[in-house]
């Protein structure tokens, strides 16, 4: 599904964020990208979602070489991904319903379908009763759940989460992780960057980065909770 | 196709919400556009009205040819035949000094005895209508006429209408320049307002880009905002113009008796109303398009 082949990413100032990364992510995989701060986890996710372009090497997603993708095609590529950020990136001047409805408006989905799908997404993350509430009045965990609802509402094939539990306490973090696992169970590819690998009862792949280099790629590890 | 229009409808709705949520500043923008467009529009309206009056004046270039006092009839006949042979002369009208004197006396109610005028002071004259406005041809004709025996003087008149039209033409050009400058100012003002709006919606733009919105999708509500600004401004311009015409015409009617004549401004016809609104909307739309396009590009997160 996603293939990295000898990918390098260098930012201005000669800082190599990623060096010689070769990896493969298969459909419906749960992938954890781990490593300390500055390891290149966020850069890796940005390369997948075409927020950044690689300095060299190729990234292939569904037979498209992302490093050669034209700027005008990038928005359409992004619609395959559901993206979740540590700081949620919610719109605080719109209520929960409107936040979740945004990707559907971008995808040209009409009014009745929007209502149905937004409510389904909010229900999935347990926020259906808060659809008219402004995000500012939600707790950190609820805001992250709202961000997940926004990410899944357009039924993406891949969920990309950049340290989604970084600002949450253990209880909320587990809650969020369980939501991700449930999506992986129904066939969505889930890629999560995190400092530490959470204790998870299901199969997953671990991509470990240190200093921009791939230090380990372990497949199908199964941990017991 | 339905989704495309639905999308535009949503963008228009978002623009309306933005305008009504900042109604005071939106109203200020309407007034700025309205007043700025009022200046050249009112100037053009007045010039247009004067032009129409001048167009209604039928005129030819005319020469007045005054003959010497002691001129004989055969000389007059010779001049008449010479004039008839000249190609650029449309028609001639001879007025003898006696006829002219009678006309003057009856017009001014003069009694020669009471005024002390002992003899007719007026000369015999030809009044000549020309079929050209070409100054070279007219000047050549004047020079020729002056050389004829018995011709005292030749005057070229009726040029004033032409001069008036030239002045009006110059005024129109001046107003067009003024209009162009004011439109440029409007584009800058609207563009700057829209640019500031994009800054206040920076988060929304960035999030929209991250979840797959195209630049045109993001720009759309801003462009509709500019379009609505243009519509509001255009309506204010028309209302102000109509009010000005009403006030001016009322004052003109009141002054009619004093001035012995009146000048009434014609009310705007629907085509003129539509033109003002369309121009205003085009200005709003294009200014917001350029501003939103530049700003949204600046928030580019693709590298």
Task: Summarize the structure in short.
Chain A is an alpha/beta fold. Chain A has helices at residues 41-48, 74-78, 96-106, 111-124, 140-152, 170-185; strands spanning 2-11, 15-25, 30-34, 56-61, 64-65, 81-84, 158-162, 189-194, 204-210, 213-221. The model of chain A has no long low-confidence stretch (mean pLDDT 86).
Give a quick set of tags describing it.
heterodimer; A: 225 residues; alpha/beta; 4-stranded antiparallel sheet; 29% strand; globular; B: alpha+beta; Alpha-Beta Plaits; 2 domains; elongated
What can you tell me about this protein's structure?
With 225 residues, chain A is of the alpha/beta class. Chain A has a domain at 90-156. Chain A has 6 helices and 10 strands. In chain A, the strands form 2 sheets. In chain A, strands 6-7-8-3-9-10 form a 6-stranded mixed beta sheet, sandwiched between helices. Chain A has a 4-stranded antiparallel beta sheet with strand order 2-1-4-5, covered by helices on one side. In chain A, strand 7, helix 6 (170-185) and strand 8 form a beta-alpha-beta unit. Chain B folds into 2 domains: 2-57 and 162-298, no CATH class; 62-157, Alpha-Beta Plaits (2-Layer Sandwich), CATH 3.30.70. Chain B is 73% helix and 9% strand. Chain B is built from 10 helices and 4 strands. In chain B, helix 9 runs antiparallel to helix 10 (270-298). The chains are: A alpha/beta (225), B alpha+beta (303). The interface between A and B is medium-sized, with 32 and 22 residues.
């Amino acid at each position: 599904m996603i293939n990295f082949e000898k990918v390098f990413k260098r930012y201005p100032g000669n800082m190599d964020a990623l060096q010689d990364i070769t990896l493969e992510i298969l459909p419906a995989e749960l992938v954890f990208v781990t490593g300390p701060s500055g390891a290149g986890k966020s850069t890796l996710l940005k390369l997948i979602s075409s927020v950044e372009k690689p300095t060299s090497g190729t990234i292939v997603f569904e037979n498209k070489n992302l490093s050669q993708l034209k700027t005008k095609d990038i928005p359409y590529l992004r619609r395959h991904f559901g993206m979740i950020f540590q700081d949620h990136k919610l719109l605080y001047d719109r209520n929960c319903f409107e936040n979740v409805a945004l990707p559907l408006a971008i995808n040209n989905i009409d009014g009745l379908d929007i209502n149905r799908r937004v409510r389904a997404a909010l229900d999935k993350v347990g926020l259906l009763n808060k659809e008219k509430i402004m995000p500012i009045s939600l707790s950190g965990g609820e805001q992250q759940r709202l961000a997940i609802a926004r990410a899944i509402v357009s039924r993406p094939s891949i969920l990309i989460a950049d340290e989604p539990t970084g600002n949450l306490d253990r209880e909320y973090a587990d809650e969020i992780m369980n939501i991700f696992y449930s999506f992986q169970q129904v066939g969505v590819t889930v890629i999560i960057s995190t400092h530490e690998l959470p204790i998870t009862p299901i199969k997953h792949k671990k991509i470990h980065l240190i200093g921009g280099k791939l230090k380990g790629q372990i497949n199908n590890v199964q941990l017991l909770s | 196709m339905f989704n495309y229009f639905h999308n535009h409808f949503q963008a228009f709705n978002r623009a309306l919400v933005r305008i009504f949520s900042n109604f005071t500043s939106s109203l200020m923008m309407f007034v700025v556009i309205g007043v700025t467009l009022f200046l050249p529009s009112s100037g053009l309206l007045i010039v247009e009205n004067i032009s129409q009056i001048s167009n209604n004046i039928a005129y030819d270039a005319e020469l007045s040819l005054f003959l010497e006092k002691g001129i004989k009839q055969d000389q007059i006949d010779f001049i008449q035949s010479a004039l008839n042979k000249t190609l650029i002369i449309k028609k001639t009208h001879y007025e003898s000094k006696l006829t002219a004197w009678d006309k003057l006396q009856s017009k001014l109610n003069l009694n020669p005895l009471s005024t002390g005028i002992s003899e007719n002071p007026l000369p015999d004259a030809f009044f000549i209508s020309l079929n050209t406005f070409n100054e070279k041809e007219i000047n050549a004709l004047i020079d020729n006429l002056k050389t004829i025996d018995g011709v005292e003087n030749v005057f070229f008149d009726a040029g004033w209408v032409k001069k008036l039209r030239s002045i009006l033409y110059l005024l129109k050009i001046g107003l067009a320049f003024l209009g162009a400058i004011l439109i440029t100012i409007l584009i800058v003002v609207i563009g700057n307002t829209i640019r500031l709006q994009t800054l206040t919606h920076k988060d929304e733009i960035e999030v929209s880009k991250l979840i797959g919105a195209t630049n045109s999708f993001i720009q759309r509500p801003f462009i509709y905002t500019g379009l609505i600004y243009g519509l509001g401004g255009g309506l204010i311009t028309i209302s102000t113009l109509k009010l000005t015409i009403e006030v001016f015409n009322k004052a003109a009617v009141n002054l009619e008796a004093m001035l012995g004549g009146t000048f009434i401004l014609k009310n705007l016809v629907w085509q003129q109303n539509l033109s003002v609104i369309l121009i205003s909307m085009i200005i709003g739309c294009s200014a917001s398009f350029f501003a939103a396009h530049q700003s949204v590009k600046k928030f580019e997160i693709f590298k």
